[in-house]
Amino acid sequence: MHTAACIFDLDGVIVDTAKYHFQAWKRLADQLGIIFTEEDNERLKGVSRMSSLEIILELGGINPGDEKKMEYATLKNDWYVELISKMTPAEILPGSVQFIKEIRKKGIRTAIGSASKNTPMILQRVGIQELFDAVADGNNITKAKPDPEVFLKAAEMLNVDPAECVVFEDAVAGIQAAVNAGMRCVGIGSKLVLAKADMVVSGLNEMNPEILSNLENTKYI
Ligand code: G6P
Ligand code: MG
User: Fold this and answer.
1) What are the residues facing 184 on neighbouring strands?
2) How many Å is the Cα radius of gyration of the chain?
């Protein structure tokens, strides 16, 4: 199957924002007297803001009601925005810009497919908006991964058939979303964890257009 477009998750694929999510959630957890570790933070990758809050409240055995939940989520996001507003281009993960530029030169269209409502700010802070033909993010979708909505939205914005898209994802829910969208996917991280991906690499620095075309040749949908 020919590849017409590549769709990239943002957090954990192009930038490492997990550490900022952790700092902001940790600040909230500390304030609520909940023990929250970096290991717990792994469970939040690719998970929406409200679902992340639910996981943390569950860790603390707290159920504060909807109004308080909104207040906590807003507080966390304010702290998170404070952190990401200081991001610089130096925080782009190795190899990302080079790989995206290489595939664009070959005529492959590129998009972001991220659950984060803060996607526009992150892209602007690290200065890579011009690398993408479309941005599908938490602001224009309603259903979280593993629902395929965000990737289907990106394909629609690009006017490309989902079967001609390859997704790059670091979260299990994101890989499942790509599968549900009928797209091929490259996992970023561990083969054991991302078992449903068509191939797994440790980062975009391991990718090049040739490896991408091998993926095209081995998978038929
Ligand atoms: C990404 C991250 C998650 C985060 C979600 C929502 O999927 O991996 O950790 O919870 O985006 O991000 P937001 O910036 O909208 O709170
Ligand atoms: Mg991610």
Assistant:
1) 166
2) 17
For 83-142, how does the pLDDT look when each residue is reduced to its tens digit (9 = 90+)?
999 999 999 999 999 999 999 999 999 999 999 999 999 999 999 999 999 999 999 899
Closest CA to 21 of 93, 90, 73, 95: 73
* Nearest CA among 17, 4, 210 for reference residue 114: 17
* DSSP count for the chain of H helices, then E strands: 9, 6
Residue 117 in contact with ligand 1 by CB distance below 6 A: yes
Reply yes or no on whether 170 is catalytic: no
11 lines ligand 1 (CB under 6 A): yes
- Residue 1 — very low, low, confident or very high, per pLDDT cuts 50/70/90? confident
11 a catalytic residue: yes
Q: 165 with 183: CB under 8 angstroms?
A: yes
Task: Report the C-alpha gap between 41 and 21 in whole angstroms.
Answer: 8
115 lines ligand 1 (CB under 6 A): yes
**β-pair type (199-201, 134-136):** unpaired
